[in-house]
Amino acid sequence: MNDHWHKILVVDDSHTVRHSVRHVLEDAGYEVIEAEGGLEALTRIKKKGMPHLALVDLNMPGMDGFTFCKKVHQFSDLPIVMLTSVDDESTVVQGLEEHAEDYIVKPFRKAELVARIKRVLGRMESYAYTFDPIIEIDERLAVDLPNRKAFVNTDKLSLTPTEAKLLYILIKNAGRTVSTEYLLQRVWPLDDAFEDRLHAHIYRLRKKIEIDPKSPTYVVSDWGKGYTFPPRVKS
């Protein structure tokens, strides 16, 4: 996907930092959305849909960066890059192990910032579907990830955090098989999770969104490999 189509959410309480980052990223071809804190960032996601990546400060009033990461990862597997002045080893390790794909210490170097974002995006597949707040899968199914809702015909169904995160990953990789190992790693990064746990959540998700859970059309098993979500049908 061309960089021009990548949407970056910049979460920082400093207007100066946000302005500087916006200038650098827009010059590199990215679309930028700004938020001055975690709460505003979550609101913007609900209104504007999922970004491709979030660049997040750590120390912010109201909701710090790690709390924002926990909140957004309750309904997605959004790639996070921490951009903060906090550089003690324990915080960096915590950020990388629990929340973020990368950790950059301020003051940042422009070319390095762009290179690190490009590297993270290069490892992450991008949506085949739109980035609208409500993702229209087909005439029967739509998904509102930030609010953890699925719309099946006229029914509005609640999704658990795990179900929403699974859907995010599968929709993001629509048309490709997502391996069982990858799903276990991304959904439960801090746990020693096993296939039985994943299968139980897939079973419950299918019961909510499939016409026939025993013959699924959305969350399709690729036996011995993983699961596949149908690719977007272009109109």
Brief descriptors of the model:
235 residues; alpha/beta; Rossmann fold; Arc Repressor Mutant, subunit A; 2 domains; five-stranded parallel β-sheet; four-stranded antiparallel β-sheet; 8 helices; 12 strands
Description:
- The protein is of the alpha/beta class and 235 residues long.
- 39% of the residues lie in helices and 20% in strands.
- The protein is built from 8 helices and 12 strands.
- It has helices spanning 15-27, 38-48, 65-72, 89-99, 110-123, 161-172, 180-187, 195-209; strands at residues 7-11, 31-35, 53-56, 80-84, 102-105, 135-136, 141-144, 149-152, 155-158, 177-179, 220-222, 226-228.
- It has a 5-stranded parallel beta sheet, with helices on both faces. It has a 4-stranded antiparallel beta sheet with strand order 6-7-8-9, with no helix packed on it. A 3-stranded antiparallel beta sheet has the order 10-12-11.
- α2 packs parallel to α3 (65-72).
- It is globular, with a radius of gyration of 18 Å.
- It starts with 6 loop residues before the first strand and ends in a 7-residue tail after the last strand.
